[in-house]
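dumping this here before i forget
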Amino acid sequence: MSPAPRPVPRPPAPERMATCLETDEDVMDALRESLAPPLAKPSPVRVAPSPVPRTPATPIVAGPPPARQAPQRPPVAAYRPSLRPPMAVLTVCDDGKNDGEQFRLRDGRFVIGRTEGDLLIPHDGMISSRHVEITRQSVAGQPRWIVTDLQSTNGLFVRISRTLLADQSELLVGKGRYRLLAPSGEGSATADYSPPEGARNMTQAWGADASAPAIPSLVELVGNAFANRVPLLGAEYWIGADPSCAICRANDHYCDARHARLTRDAKGGWQVEQNKTVNGLWFRVPQVVCDTVVQFQIGEQRFRLRAGG
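structure:
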């Protein structure tokens, strides 16, 4: 009698990331604040106090105890299937809007790409052939929708309210893309430039000397090259269009005046949070779990995924 076949081990469930996603309510509040006109302060009006007439004290008469109210029945919930897996709704946002064309995901797998997949976006050259995959998986015993980067060139970004940063973390702010360089501090080089052979006596790029102390910095990515570099020597930095911001995007019409705040904690770690912005703060991740709603971007195309249909 042949032995029974061994069960095939299931892949481990994806880990939840320590990142706070921005909710739909946060996005709508930021849009309303950006469109509301400034309120004018009314001038104070002085009103003379009027005399209060004296009234005789009224005796207090104890009444019957209040009747007990019957416990209220909870509101009736809208029907949802309990035996079949839940569906999801994917919105391909129109340019400049938070809504657009919708796709209802009923199968357990949906691929988005430029030339391959279930949804093709051929006109965006920053999207890879197969860029992301949306799958339905079990997380802690519950069905969840997972968005996974398929090793794309330009990555998967999610809209967040705040997150912790590590070395090589990437952010989208307005039209800008930034990367944090936070070396270990053991003397490793922080620059992407290395002098060629025979050029040891030439002036080197900032931080290119491997013996120099490691300094954390935030660099802007333009194409495939590093552009502006800001050494992070202080404890707080603002990114925004206002000239007072240490990292200023003065000509970026998609960037708020004070868009995001970068801070360092007592242990030297860095975190970033958005400041109720119209266009949001986006953080590069390999994968994101959608509990209710998640907004993500690939290339220059933004999406909204809502679990449960």
